[in-house]
Amino acid sequence: MTDLAKILIFSGGLLIVIGLGVLLFSKYPQYFSWLGHLPGDIHIRRENFHFYFPLTTCLLLSALLTLIFFLLSRR
Questions:
Q1: Is the CB of residue 56 less than 8 Å from the CB of residue 40?
Q2: Model confidence at 74: pLDDT above 80
Q3: CA 24, CA 51: separation in Å to the nearest integer?
Q4: pLDDT tens digit string along 1-32?
Q5: Which residues lie across from 52 on neighbouring strands?
Q6: What angle do CA 12, 15, 63 make, to 5 degrees?
Q7: What is the pLDDT of residue 75?
Q8: Cα 34 to Cα 48: distance, rounded to the nearest angstrom
């Protein structure tokens, strides 16, 4: 197979996985309510100001995606 075909097959599989994830998140939100509310996420609330940055959630997702792509790229 050509490289383009492999990229298209991988992209299609990735879109299916993302679609299933979105479906699960919307159908069962009680199981994923912790995502975005982990210790270390920055949440500042003032009178007329609200700031939220999910730092720990971003680091966790980055580590998970790095591990997945590392395992997929090994030959």
A1: yes
A2: no
A3: 27
A4: 688 888 889 889 989 988 888 888 788 877 77
A5: 43
A6: 115
A7: 64
A8: 26
